[in-house]
């Protein structure tokens, strides 16, 4: 079974530029998550989709971050404009259901904002 | 809201030593509990899980028991190896609604030969 795919693996941008990350979840997984992991900290949920609907985006900085899930499958996360404090690893994960089941993670995209 | 508290690291051990990483949680209802491991430069991998009280999750020599009375899910291994060096995350997910997977801050384990 193919895992969660993310791209790119690494990205370096200047502050105030924009950037986009892409995620392809495991086939058939209804729930998709985007997490932000700052160095030395645990992952923090940015947004959670159930199929193509948003069920939790309470910690997403909506003035600069946006995300969509196309046709309930692939997802993109965008940052515009980026700030220095956005430097982190952005993790995408998916799970079969919305309760109790484990999530499977991609390898992440390491973003450096200079 | 839901939260997970882990012991701070790094935990430094010699090979073949006994490992315990403490994890306690606060949650509404009865969550499922997980341990994830992150090796250097890699994403998170599920290590083990438990879905109800008194369940024991186990994998690769690691074990953790879901203790409802103490709201804990401590990770243990009888004899660690150098290859176990990684960051370990405790996490929970409630079993109602569109539940979020909530993580602790992680505990780094360093095992020396």
Radius of gyration of chain B: 14 Å
Structural class of chain A: mainly beta
Number of helices of chain A: 0
Q: Give the number of DSSP strands of chain B.
A: 12
Largest interface: A-B, 27 and 26 residues
What is the percentage of strand-forming residues of chain B? over 45%
End-to-end separation of chain A = 37 Å
Enumerate the spans of chain B where pLDDT stays under 50 for 5 or more consecutive residues: none
Q: What proportion of the residues of chain A is helical, as a percent range?
A: under 10%
| SSE pattern of chain A, N- to C-terminal | EEEEEEEEEEE
Oligomer: heterodimer
Query: What is the helix tally of chain B?
Result: 0
Q: Give the low-pLDDT segments of chain A.
A: none
Order of helices and strands of chain B: EEEEEEEEEEEE
Give the end-to-end Cα distance of chain B, rounded to a whole number of Å.
41 Å
Shape of chain A: globular
The major pleated sheet of chain B works out as: 6 strands, mixed
- Shape of chain B from CA axes? globular
List the helices and strands and how they pair.
The complex is a heterodimer of chains A (114) and B (113).
Chain A: E1 5-7, E2 10-13, E3 19-24, E4 31-37, E5 44-50, E6 53-56, E7 65-69, E8 75-79, E9 88-95, E10 104-105, E11 109-113
Chain B: E1 3-6, E2 11-14, E3 19-21, E4 23-26, E5 32-38, E6 44-50, E7 56-59, E8 62-65, E9 75-77, E10 86-93, E11 101-103, E12 107-112
Parallel strand pairs in B: 2-12
Antiparallel strand pairs in B: 1-4, 3-9, 5-6, 5-10, 7-8, 8-9, 10-11, 10-12
């Amino acid at each position: 079974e193919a895992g969660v795919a993310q791209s790119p693996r690494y990205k370096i941008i200047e502050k105030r530029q924009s950037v986009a990350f892409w995620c392809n979840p495991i086939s058939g997984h209804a729930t998709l998550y985007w997490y932000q992991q700052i160095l030395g900290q645990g992952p923090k949920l940015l947004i959670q989709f159930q199929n193509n609907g948003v069920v939790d985006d309470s910690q997403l900085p909506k003035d600069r971050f946006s995300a969509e899930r196309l046709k309930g499958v692939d997802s993109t996360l965008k940052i515009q404009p980026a700030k220095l404090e956005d430097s982190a690893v952005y993790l995408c994960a998916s799970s079969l259901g919305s309760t109790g089941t484990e999530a499977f993670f991609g390898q992440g995209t390491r973003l450096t904002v200079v | 809201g839901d939260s997970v508290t882990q012991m701070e690291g790094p935990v430094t051990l010699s090979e073949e030593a006994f490992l315990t990483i403490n994890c306690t949680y606060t949650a509404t209802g009865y969550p499922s509990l997980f341990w994830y491991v992150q090796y250097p430069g890699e994403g998170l991998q599920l290590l083990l899980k438990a879905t109800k009280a008194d369940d024991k999750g186990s994998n690769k020599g690691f074990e953790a028991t879901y203790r409802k009375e103490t709201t804990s899910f401590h990770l243990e291994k009888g004899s660690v190896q150098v290859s176990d060096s990684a960051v370990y995350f405790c996490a929970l997910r409630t079993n109602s609604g569109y539940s979020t997977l909530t993580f602790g801050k992680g505990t780094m384990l360093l095992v020396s030969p």
